[in-house]
Amino acid sequence: MDFKKIYKKIGFPRLIISAFLIVLLIAAAMLNIPLSGIWKDIFTRFGMNAILVLAMVPSIQSGIGINFNLPLGVIFGLIGALISIELGLTGWTSFFVALAIAIPLAVIAGYLYGLMLNKVKGQEMTVGNYVGYSIVSFMCIFWLVAPFRNPELTWAMGGSGLRVTLSLESSMAGLLDKSLNPEWLPEWLKIIPIGLILFFALLAGIVWIFSKSKSGTAMKVAGSSEAFATSNGVNVDRQRLLGIVLSTVLAAIGIIVYSQSFGFLQLYNSPLYVALPAAASILIGGATLQKAKIIHVVIGTFLFQGLLVVALPVINILSEGSMAEIIRIIISNGIILYALTRKAGDAA
Hints:
The chain is mostly helical. Helices cover 70% and strands 2% of the residues. The protein has a single domain, classed as ABC transporter involved in vitamin B12 uptake, BtuC (Orthogonal Bundle), CATH 1.10.3470. The protein has a two-stranded antiparallel sheet. α3 packs across α14 (275-284) and α14 (275-284) crosses α15. 43% of the residues are buried.
C-alpha cells in the first residue's frame, strides 16, 4: 500500500479534519454523550447545508471561482418563502410555491450579476464579496418597508416591517425532514432525515447530469481554459453567465430547504453568514478554485458540519464553556486561506 499516494489523494486538510472528527467522536463516547443524537444532528445539518454547498459547483466549474455572493440567491429564496407565508399557504403547497417564486427571481438576478462579473474578469471573488455586503445592506431597508401584512411576519407593535426571525411552524417547518420516515422503520434509520437527504440527492443528480451534457462540458472547458475554449468556438462569457445563474438558483433553493429544516426564516444580516461555511465545506471536500465535483460537496459538507456538531457538546464539557464558535471560525477561515494560497495544479 502506497501511503504517499493515499495521502496525496486525500489531501492534508481532509486528513486533519477527518482525524479531528474521529477523535471528537471517541471523546463523545467516553463522555457518555448519546451518539444516536449526535449522528442524527450530523445527518440533519448535512441535508440542511448541502444544497448551499452544491451552489458552489457551477460557479467554480464555469471559471468564476467561489461564489462569495451566495447571499444574492439566498435573498430571493427568502422572498419566495415570505410571499408563500403572506398568502397563507401551508404544507407542501407553501414549500413548492416558495420554490416557484424564488427560482425565476434568482434566474433574473443571477443573469444580471453574471453580466457584471463578465466585466471584471479575474476579480470575481473580491467583487462578489462586496456585492453581497451591498445587497444584504440594501435588503435590510427593504425588510423594514416591504408591503407584508401577515401578523406572523410583521412586528407586533406598529404592524409594519418584518421581524428578524420568523417561525415556519404554521407553514412548511420540517416538511422534508419528516417525510419518508414512517414509524415502522428500524431505529437506526430513524436518525436519518430521508426526505431531506433524497431532495439533496435529486438536485445533486441534476447537476451531475448537466455536467455530463454538451452544455455542461462546454461550461467546464470555458472554466478550465478560456483560450482553449475560445479556439474551439465556445462562448466563454455565455458559459460564465450560465454558471452563475445556476449557482444563484441553487442558493435560492438551498435557503428554503435550510429554513424549513431549521424551522425559521432569518432576515436582515443573516444571509451574510451563508457563503463562508459553504466555501469552507467544498474546499475541505477537495475542490480547488478550478475544479469541483459532487463528491467534494458530499465529503466537505459531512466533515464540516460533523465537526461542528460533535465539537459543541464535547468541548463544552471539557472546557466548561463554549468554544464551538471559535472552532468554526478557525476551520472555515483557515481552510479558505489554505485553498486560496494554493497554486493552480497543486493538490487540494
